[in-house]
Specification:
By secondary structure, the protein is mainly beta. It has no helices and 16 strands. It is globular, with a radius of gyration of 16 Å.
Length: 166
Amino acid sequence: MCFSPSGHLIASGSKDKKVRLWIPSVKGESTVFKAHTAAVRCVDFASDGQSLLSSSEDKTIKIWTVHRQKFQFSLNQHSNWVRCAKFSPDGRLIVSCSDDKTVKIWDRNTNECMHTFYEPHGFLNEVAFHPSGTCIGGGCTDASVKIWDIRTRKLIQHYASNHSKR
């Protein structure tokens, strides 16, 4: 789940294949978006609060308009579950990670994959943009953290983690 930038909405995704929008001040009521064919793994609002994305075990990322509550488009180039997807701080890009051992950078204006990073030692569970929008980071299944510069398209840091795998 995540809060909208204004804090007036909450988005949640579930194993029931649905994305729900909640108004925190109204108990029990939600708006339902139905488009995925498998569990929803992640939701994220764009920084302007006008768009919402959802990623799913159906190998897709879906983009929605928040106020009109309409489906806009789908990103379909992953070949396995999409664990996480996030908007860039300016909303122009999307980063996603998948069980297909890739991290993809998408151009939101063209709906095209701009670049794919391959993770040969496993897949990432989580990805996020640096606040500057120039780098992405991800947490890997081998308990490491990796940082890529999206301008040079290179891995710039690899932190072998001390996190236990309990």
